[in-house]
């Protein structure tokens, strides 16, 4: 089913089939309060990669709102800060942070402030601010708190600019208050790693169900092999790069003289 | 049409990259320089990480310099002995440069060093060339025969380790060309340039080499230094993007014959003046980036996956 649904031309037909299938399943009360799946378990970064769409779909048992968070691998991210030194702007400041998600996006059936109680639900981080509460500055004692806040805001702003913390919340479509689906758009500059797609059902400001699905983002095909060779057989890779450049340069020289 | 660059880890338009390579190729054909001084800052500008831009650029320089070298070799315009002395310095310099590059990258200062390095280099070389071609233009207008070269022999002649360079008709200390090779080697590792536009004037004005053998001999040194830099960057820093380099090389192969055809129809001083203006324009643009308040104070540095 996944393979068929990945094909863009067959997607509408395939979706209809899926929904029909889920409908029959959902008609009697669901055995589980929340079912979730992805149109594909893996985002492959190939030579022609320009970003990717992943369909997240599922069914809920009873009324409620669905919220989906997509979180990239946890990373140690360094933030650089330009400062003016002798009239020139230099990257003079740097601060590392631990547990920064490589990517973070949210989708919901309604605006988050209508679903979540003010201040969020304890133990269930949903918004970017809540997710980033666990982010810790490395060697924090060496900096003034005000300085750390500045770097922290800079981190979020820089990630936003790169499209890695999208600030719009995607809208999840509910069908018959039972089935839901949302198409998640991933940017072309997507860090590789193990992602986690988490779906929650909120009812009266309480999380009543939660399900998590893994999503692997990895290089595939030619670009995977190139990157693998560059890291695992570095000297051979270097020699190949040199040989190719020599050969093309030589050929170009010969061709230019013939013309 | 986009192509994903597996080491730079981003997608860029193929035609944009071919165009950039083509511009470098036109420059190579017109002026006999690799065009790296233009390409590296432009690649960084379109989003390629500086480390990848510099290393892949070295890979591209191999192709342009082998094309040029073949041409000069067949005409016998390469002083191999001088080339080897330059190269000895160049290999040591570029090896040191690659290490320095890794250290600067660790401290997050590589962007700044690349930027300021380009500004200083391009401004000084560009202004020297403007002055030189303006003088040549005045001489031509006044119809005065060219003055004898004013280079001084004192330093070159006092240093030890004198070597006879037959093809260049020089009897000078090997230390000076080796030192020059070293300096160009460091520059080429850090800035991703071949160094032709620095090396050629230095060989003419500092060493007093005859103009005929200068370009061929500099290409000889540039080729082997670029090979060394590419290998070290690939083996140590894993920053050579073979896909990026290949697209640039292909663009360059198309651009180079166009450049040499344009060059054939322009007098030398005009050509040098044009190159000088181009170099100065690039220096100004980079200077502006250093002085003007940045649009974003914070940028992302290294990202390491946590266990």
List the helices and strands and how they pair.
The complex is a heterodimer of chains A (259) and B (307).
Chain A: H1 2-6, H2 11-26, E1 34-38, E2 42-45, E3 52-60, E4 65-71, E5 74-85, E6 88-101, E7 104-108, H3 112-115, H4 128-131, E8 136-137, H5 145-161, E9 170-171, E10 173-175, E11 179-186, E12 193-203, E13 206-219, H6 221-232, H7 234-258
Parallel strand pairs in A: 2-13, 7-9
Antiparallel strand pairs in A: 1-3, 3-11, 4-7, 4-12, 5-6, 6-8, 10-11, 12-13
Helix pairs in contact in A: 6-7
Chain B: E1 2-5, E2 10-13, H1 14-31, H2 36-45, H3 50-74, H4 80-106, H5 110-142, H6 154-158, E3 162-165, E4 170-173, H7 175-191, H8 196-207, H9 211-237, H10 242-264, H11 268-291, E5 298-305
Helix pairs in contact in B: 1-2, 1-10, 2-3, 3-9, 3-10, 4-7, 4-9, 5-11, 7-8, 7-9, 8-9
Polypeptide structure, described:
- Chain A contains seven helices and 13 strands.
- With 259 residues, chain A is of the alpha+beta class.
- With 307 residues, chain B is mainly alpha-helical.
- Chain B has one domain.
- In chain B, helix 1 (14-31) packs antiparallel against helix 2.
- The mean pLDDT of chain B is 84.
- The interface between A and B is large, with 70 and 62 residues.
